[in-house]
Structures
1.
Amino acid sequence: MNQNKLKVLFVTAEVAPFSSVGGLAHVSYFLPKALKRLGVDVRVFTPKYGSINTKLLQTTNILEGLKIPTGEEDSGQHPKELVCNIKVLKTPKKDDPVIYFLENMEYYEQRANVYGYSDDHIRFGLLSRAAVEFAQQKEFVPDIIHSNDWHTGYVPNFLETVYKNNDTEKIASLFSIHNLYQGVFDFDHASEMNFDDGKGELASFFSDHFLKQNALKRGIIYADLVNTVSQTYSREIMTENYAPKLFNLLKELRGKFYGVLNGLDYNNFNPKNDKVINKNFSAANLSARQENKIALQKEFNLKILPHSPILGIVGRLDEQKGLDLVLQTMDFILKECGAQLIVVGKGDDKYGDYFLDLEKRYPGMVGTHLMYDATLPRKVFAGADMILMPSRYEPGGIVALEAMRYGCIPVVRATGGLADSVVDHAPTESTGTGFSFTTYSAMSFLTAVIRALETYKNPEAWKKIVKRAMEQDFSWDKAAKKYLELYHRAQEFSTKEGE
């Protein structure tokens, strides 16, 4: 098939800059953009939430009064159809993909948040069915529907059941797992009575039974192909340790599982022209990076110690990020190693309180900003020497890619995307882009940090690691080529299944 004519509908619960909650929003913007550069006719389909800045949202109505079946019978209690409008973004930049916004007053426009409602299963059931219903119209008939995470796991289910024998040509499906979160209902602790094997008929949106139907599992079962956001994570989730309730199903279907590491937009994340950082620099001009370090120390009220290593922690503060290992070791690192620490992010109070206490106990050596900030992480990446990521598990690990782009060296646990992106430093071979450890323990983490700090004392060796890290290619263009391969595989698989 001519790839220039490949048509993809990319269905997602969030997309930057309109509804940016987590990493999915950035994938939903940058991946379609990179696919478009490859000649793919890719279009994004997402809800129009009430929280979206109307200044960003100039749209044209393309489908009005689209009736989305809810699966409800003539009970009179709930509607058989929900009426939606579909609008298209009016003024996308030249290289931006077309974005369709799904309008529904009750489930999207009157909601202040993207997630966090007791009826999220209905809201995203509506998104999934509306995407498939939209694909049946003549406005845009895709070859592939690419759905993402549990919110759109119903899409492959609808395609393979309710819409299987429709007049439209067979539409193939790819389901991407960004994390194993399964939605509103606690499926991991469900009773036998509430167990969903993933194969039964989908219930009405308003039924108690629909709440207990596992969209993530159904996306996995019904999609032509499934991928996770790193190769290592695609293997890890086949084990009980990473997916205690799903690993048997995943192992059974491993033949259609793939891993594609998330990318980074190298135009957007570029220390050569980034206006956020104090001083622009490149791998060929690392001396300018020192000014960012001093600016960072000033911003966080740290002592101006140009040769003291700065350790950074950026992102969500929770157990998954391996912060228990930090709690067990940071006092030793600060007392014995002469390092400074900067923490940017919000999350569990347990960790926030710890870092605030650390800041009081080590004045001039620890700085914190315990809330969300869109630009501050770039200043940390540009000025800190190392980023700490001792994660329990890490499907993608985008922070490590961003840090390396700015010459901030990752100290990571070799899991998920971190194992795929960070090469452990081998001093005898002069290789590596970071420092990694395997066993989830405080001692293993501390050993990796000490290795990094000892290497830092050798400026020439450290400079080589920084240059290697900055010269890595984790661009979205590279990732998009792999997704293009998956689209063609999904089409082949879909064709064989239909024969």
2.
Amino acid sequence: MLRRFIKIAAFVCIPIAGTMACGSRGIVMGEDTSPPAGFVTPDSGTSEGGVDPAALIAYCPSSQCPPGWTTCPDSRFPCDTNVLGDSRNCGACGNACPENTAYEEFVCSDGACTMECTGASIREKDCDGIVENGCESGEFDPNNCGACGVVCAEGERCLRQDGPVEGEVACGCPPGKLDCGRLGCVEVEDDDSNCGACNNACDRTGGPDAPQYSNVYYGCIDRECGKLKCHATFADCDGTLENGCETSTYTDDDCGACGNKCPAGQRCVYLPSGAKCMCPEGLTFCQTGEQGGLPFGDCVDLRSDRRNCGDCGVVCGRFGFFPKEKQVCDFGKCVFRCMEGSADCNGAQADGCEIDTNSDPRNCGGCGVTCDLTLGQACVAGKCVVEPCERADAGEVTR
């Protein structure tokens, strides 16, 4: 009986060593231990075109599941379950990984359930390797500071190095910073609230007899209070003490610093890190808030930004009305799209993305791409499964 087949020249194939290999025409089953053919000269028995017909390998449709894939009792299609990565069928059908918790996430990796810590600061590391007690080590654990096995010296705390909110966690504080309790590691050189020591706040007025200047206060410089400093949004650009810090650093002409003029088409906006000229050509500034009368926000592409689609503040929904459907911003309009591995093949909005293109042999990898249904050819990962077969079974040689 003749069977349908696929012929692939050896110079575009790789040997298959008992594992699944994805080619341009299908997923390959079985084992091929023959060495790959190289380019040969015309006088070495090759056919016209430089390819030896004997080096061609015949591939036929297969109903067998590739390694790592199987058909479970609740499968919708043949070979649609990946037991190497499916947390509901990990290693075997029905072998479900434990439920996730507030601190632990269980995933299927290479057919085995493994535990990953979610990163919650209370318990973020599994340092003892015991799954039963989960992620037992916290972010500031002095016996596992920043990483498992890093032990802090006696009396030394496990601290965030760049303040209480962000930064690396390590034992003690780096040079130039002090451990200021709940504040963590603090740079005390020029900190107006911790000048030279923790909680040593400077008198911003400089005292009852100190002269006052416009947009100027008395703060900390080189661990000493009483030093003249400009307010955060101003600078002394003319160098004249009498008129104080006369220049706003949140203007298009002096953005963040004296004389820093924003290029044409950009504007000076407020960011937590300071003033910045925004936005580059092709992007639009969308204001998300205001601080001290100054706008802050982000540069966005109104053509593709899901939170600013077509105009600032126009948000596309994260999900569609049906499973496997999502909203995206396409040239400034919110539209529905199918998630990877699914498709809307009937064109009806009533049932959304109704086709599983990863496993459906009638729509394998795309609408209307049909595997050999007569032979029960399976669809795996969007490819029709094939396996090496005898030339007599393959029928007439085609190209």
